[in-house]
Design goal:
The protein is α/β, with parallel strands linked by helices. It has a single domain, classed as TIM Barrel. It is built from 18 helices and 11 strands. The strands form 2 sheets. It has an 8-stranded parallel barrel with strand order 2-3-4-5-6-7-8-9, surrounded by 6 helices. A two-stranded antiparallel ribbon has the order 10-11. Strand 5, helix 9 and strand 6 form a beta-alpha-beta unit.
């Protein structure tokens, strides 16, 4: 009798639902092995971004999508959209904070995405990113070294599990009370350079991890050309000679993470400064060889805004909250489970309720904190229910890919990205084996 075919979905769900760290690692390793055999490679988008920095191509914006819940189902939906639209440049990402409250460590997140790609028959590079590897300003002031060591530990864990794209967010250290822009950005570029150097030390042989920097904290004042120049000039001086630097720069243009919630629970319309985004992207490319500017906090913008990102040559746009909202507000999401989540929030997130805040505002703001504690119940929903919810969100993914013109670029991606199989050796030694693009054994 022949061997039974591998049930990749069962392996993925077992990985999601187990609390045993060693079992998670074992199941993840199994998924990675199958992925390589099927022609799937966790990859860095660095070389594609360097091509854009040299202005060898233009005209699209890369969507970077944070999946806080139903990661397996929504990843499958994204890969289906990519296949239909011949798309190759799109990123799966999760922030440091999201890993915590959604109970999705790097070992799980990357493996579940690859399992989804296997299930959908997708092949080629898969870009997985650590979003907002953010410096806690208060902890940094108390103990610089301890805070940096904690971030290095997280980066090391992420890179070990296939996150070959890391966004450093030291913009929390920008001090606008300083007298000139260089002094304002000093701690930001200093820390970004240090963490870049750490990444270059630990990245697998043959892989140049794509690193992003950030000059303006999302939700604060809009970024300026002077700030970009101060950051880049300071960063380039501080970065050890001969090392590869960042490939993109995140800026602030008027958005906030999650949007601004009105008393009825709806999200206020945001006016985004596309002129600033265009100007900063041009400077980043022409003067510093970067792919351009990155826009955070964009998923709750009005639908008619998204085509503008590609028009002003934004390199990358980060999308998160809307997909979480669509899960929670789907007509297919069980009402009894939603009520159970909201009752849990009343007790466990009570300290976050502000004076004068409506219940709708409170639930909108805090429900992300329930995604981890209720992960098993959400993923325990029947496949028909999860498929129905994912189907609604898939239509939104399709809309966004087309609005960002992130279509018909698979061949371009394949031209720039070299597929490499990374083998994790004992003692955390890593070796990258260049492969010819076919599935590896």
């Amino acid at each position: 009798m022949g061997r039974r075919p591998l049930d990749i979905e069962k392996i993925a769900l077992d990985l999601i639902l187990t609390d045993d760290v060693s079992k998670k690692k074992s199941l993840a390793k199994k998924i990675f092995t199958v992925a390589y055999k099927k022609g799937l490679y966790p990859s860095s988008i660095h070389q594609l971004y360097m091509g854009r920095g040299k202005q060898e191509f233009k005209g699209f914006t890369v969507p970077a999508i944070n999946l806080r819940s139903m990661t397996y189902d929504l990843s499958r939906a994204i890969f289906r959209v990519a296949k239909r639209n011949n798309s190759g440049a799109f990123i799966f990402e999760i922030a440091k904070s999201e890993m915590g409250y959604t109970f999705q460590p790097p070992v799980e997140y990357s493996a579940v995405i690859l399992a989804a790609a296997i299930k959908e028959g997708y092949t080629g590079p898969v870009f997985i990113q650590g979003d907002h590897v953010q410096v806690n300003a208060k902890k940094f002031q108390e103990n610089h070294e301890k805070e940096l060591e904690s971030l290095e530990a997280l980066i090391g864990e992420a890179v070990e599990h296939g996150f070959y794209n890391i966004d450093i967010d030291s913009s929390t250290l920008v001090d606008l009370s300083k007298t000139n822009v260089d002094k304002q950005q000093y701690a930001n570029y200093e820390v970004c350079a240090k963490l870049t150097q750490f990444i270059r030390r630990i990245e697998p042989k043959g892989v140049t991890v794509s690193v992003g920097g950030e000059i303006g904290e999302v939700g604060h004042k809009n970024s300026t050309p002077d700030e970009l120049h101060a950051f880049m000039q300071g960063y380039n001086k501080r970065l050890r000679k001969g090392l590869v630097g960042i490939s993109k720069i995140s800026v602030q243009t008027g958005t906030s993470h999650g949007g601004v919630v009105l008393p009825d629970g709806t999200v206020a319309q945001v006016k985004l400064d596309f002129d600033t985004l265009k100007t900063l992207s041009e400077i980043a490319r022409k003067e510093y060889g970067l792919s351009g500017a990155v826009q955070h906090g964009a998923s709750t913008l009005p639908a008619e805004a998204f085509h503008r990102f590609a028009e002003v040559e934004t390199a990358e746009v980060h999308l998160a909250t809307e997909f979480q909202n669509m899960i929670c507000e789907s007509k297919h999401f069980p009402q009894d489970l939603k009520e159970k989540i909201y009752e849990w929030l009343k007790v466990n997130a009570a300290s976050e309720k502000k004076e004068g805040e409506t219940e709708e505002q409170f639930f909108y703001k805090t429900r992300k904190k329930a995604l981890g504690p209720f992960k098993k119940e959400i993923m325990g929903l029947s496949s028909s229910v999860r498929d129905a919810i994912a189907g609604e969100i898939e239509a939104r993914f399709e809309f966004l890919f087309k609005q960002l013109n992130a279509v018909n670029n698979k061949d371009l991606v394949n031209k720039y990205i070299t597929l490499k199989r990374v083998i994790v050796r004992k003692r955390q030694e890593k070796e990258a084996v260049v492969h010819d693009g076919e599935g590896a054994d």
